[in-house]
Design goal:
By secondary structure, the protein is mainly alpha-helical. It is built from 4 helices and no strands.
Amino acid sequence: MSAASLFAWIATVLVGLLLLVIWLMEYDPQFQSTAATRLPIPVISTHALLGMAGLLLWGAYLLADEDRLAYATIADLAVAVALGLTMAWRWIGVYRTYRTAPRRDAPATRVLTVPPERHFPLSAVVLHGVLAVTTVILVVVTVLTD
């Protein structure tokens, strides 16, 4: 089960990095006055760093089999999950607000400026969430059964 949790965590981080790259490509501070991001930079960067640091902690735990590394990993996951749920809640609001495309009879010169997270593919967000839940369950079960 420890190997499964490691692979699930790697997949979670990879999909998360894809979302981060999309957000970074779409983020433009000049347009933040018209469509400000709902994902604050400290929250999104801390979530990403905790996800990657937790993966390193988990790998160290699997190699060293030290309980303190397992508990540090659980603590890391708890904070990363809290930030992830906060971002998911805020992203849902953006997704719903900017879900509909402009009407066909709208003026052609009108440009719709949306927050950068609106460009996240729904499938990638759902996949990241499912992989994250799977990772948390596998890590907790692995720690509890060791």
